[in-house]
Structure formats: C-alpha cells, structure tokens
Amino acid sequence: MTETKTYLSTMGFHESFVLRLLSRTNATRDDELVIVVPRPVIGGVAEAIDSLKASCSRMRYPEPRVEEIELGDFPSTLSRILDVVLSSKGVIHANLSVGLRSMDVLILLAILLSRKPFFAYLMSESGEGHDIVIKGDEVYSLLKEYTVEDLKLLHVISRKGEVTLSELASELGKSEKTVVNRLNELKKAGLVVIKGKDKGVSLTQLGNVVLKMRSLERVESASALENSFNSMKDQHESLFTS
C-alpha cells in the first residue's frame, strides 16, 4: 500500500506549478493537497484556486483544501503555518515556487521545525530549466550534531580523498571495529560512501558540506572549554560535599 502524501503549497495567479508537481510525483485522490494563502484571498489567487480545483477533479488529483493564514509578526505567522504542517499526513511534498516568497520561506521553516519527512521543490518558471529538490533527510543530516571524533574521521577522509578502513584506523589510533561502527552511522546520515572493507571510503557532497559548516578547530576548542567547565563544576561541588 502506497503511503499517503501531503502536498503543501501557497498560490500565485496561476495553478501550473502545483499541477506540474502533482504530475511529476504521481499524486492520487488518496493524497492530500493543502493550499496555504494569506487572508484575505485576492481576486487573482482565488481564480487560480478555482481553476486548480477544476483541474484536480478532472485529472483525479486530491481535492485542494485551502488554509487562509492571518499574516502578523514572524512568530505568530510561523505558528499558524506550523499548525497546518503538524496536521499533515505522510511525507510532505512542498512546492516553494509560487506565490509570496515570504509564505514559501515560512512554509519551509515550519516543515524544518516539525522534523517531518519532506521533499521541497524549487521549480523553473518555464518548466524547461533546472529544478532543485531539497530532501528532508539531507537537511536533517546537516543540522545534526556530530562528535569531535566523527569530524576527525571526516577530516581524514577529506584530506586523503579516498582511504581504506585499515588506513583510517591507523590514522585515528582506533580499532577497525570502532571505526566501522562510526562509519556505518555516518553512512546512514549520507556523509560517506563505503565501497568495501578495504576498497575505500570517501566523502559524499553532503559530507563535504558538513566539514565546511563545522571547523574542526572550533569544535575541538569548544570541547576543551566544556571539559574545563565540567572540571571546575566538579571541584566546586566537591567543596560542599566533602
């Protein structure tokens, strides 16, 4: 049985972007389609929604449900959109190519805060250019906290380009079993490719991005600072317990 998808989009003056996404991802009547628009809905947007409803009925796509959002300050508007996101079912397919850019940004932020699985689409206006698909798993991997040891491992792989398991273990001064366990976790996060026990380990583009985001020197410095703070805390507590 195919899992239900929720399509989430704002709306401009034409429904073509939404229909194109529904077609490309094989939408069915069992899926959900939620159109998030500012209140009040202006004439051109209302006409596009009516046209979308007619097309969805004719093409056996899900019936659009319109959610009108009262625009206010950032926290209140984000909160209202987050309510819509949290009520969605299955994997979210977000169209970020239409309507007010502010709504597109807030929809993406709400999805990220929800931690729900998603795909977000940045589609070319003509339909002939290059479309970008943002995968939720990849974004969440970028936002994940990695240990100093993980970053050292990634740094060694990046420096060598491709490295065998035995070389990695030797470089890091760890057992092969320990290195394999960490590599498997990093592989799940999409940061490394493991070709075999001694056939080489290499970074993915996502792994390269993680290294760019997190300077190893900064992480080691923060780790040393935290250790120092914890040591001082222990000494302070011991004064009152001895």
UniProtKB/TrEMBL annotation:
Q: Which residues form the Csa3 N-terminal domain?
A: 5-120
Q: Which Pfam families match?
A: Csa3_N, HTH_24
| Identification of the protein by name | CRISPR-associated CARF protein Csa3
Tell me the organism's taxonomic lineage.
Answer: Archaea, Thermoproteota, Thermoprotei, Sulfolobales, Sulfolobaceae
